Give the backbone structure.
Amino acid sequence: MKISQKIVTNLKEGGSDFFLSVPCKLLANMISILENDKDIYYSAIPREEEGMGICAGAYLGNKLPCIMMQNTGIGNSVNSIVSLLQLYQIPVVFLISYRGTSGEPVGAQGGMASVTEDILNTLRIPMLHCNTEDDLDKISTFTNHAKVIESPVAILCNFNLMKDD
Amino acid sequence: MNRFELLNLLKETIKDELVICNIGLPSQELYKINDSPNYFYMLGSMGLASSIGLGLSLAIDRNVISIDGDGSVLMNMNTLATIGNRAPSNYTLLIVDNGSYGSTGDQKTFTNESTSLKDVAIGAGCKNVIECSGEETDENLKKALADKNNSYVIISKIQSGNVPIKPIPLNAVTIRDRFRKVIGLVPYL
């Protein structure tokens, strides 16, 4: 719970006040924290691509949105990232549980893990890698960076960082 | 009645409202009828007009109308479940259901066969789902906007068909900024 709490606290410090999630076991604690947080908006949603649309609308209404999802969700969302968020220069923070990284027990997750960073690089989305607890201190500045550059940014939280939280 | 005639009919009702308008011909027709900074024209991401409007309605108190199409809702059908569970009372989804993919050459959609978006919306948990003719749409939209306690999904059943039209000359960031200025968020324009 300590890691999850630190991530949520830093996202909020960076300005995020509107949260969506498509579930992941590694995000479960963060989701519980957000469900009980009265200072922000939170909802689960069925699909990541839809979430990109909801986040875009929330930004038009002055929120700084954050969508929490597995890295697989990037694959579901490519056109909405390029033709909506980047076209209209809309900042959204992607908080990504990086399934398929070292420690992952499910072999099938390795496929999307092997292409996730290539996709984000191709899309020119700035990335923050979180491998240790100390890395989490960079999240609030990086969250604010999305707003400054009017662009989506991606925070990738490795399996081993999250697994025992 | 086709889409252009329907949008003309709604012109007065929506002229001061925040509207998220579907990609392609719906946006181009709305632009031609009565361009206004309170209209957010989608230039990409087919399927997400309903979602963008939902996100905006969750962020502010003003009424928000998403003008969507049957083909686009079919592409993002989970949106009806999210709307059914999360839409606030200031949100209205207007589905212009002409049974065809108008912007790509009027190929038929499944609402032209066995699919009822009204039944899907109700099954997905949407309240106040109204299916009506094009002629009845304006009065139903006025009712939805006046009701401060409920969100609405209006499915307007019209004919397919388009008018000759040009692409919208505005770029995306211009559309974004003038729209946000109406909400009061852009001091520099």
In short: The first helix of chain B runs from residue 3 to 9. The mean pLDDT of chain B is 97. Chain B touches chain A at residues 20, 40, 42-45, 47-60, 64, 76, 78-79, 81-82, 86, 172-173, 175-176, 179-180, 183, 185 (CB under 8 Å). Chain B has one domain: 3-183.
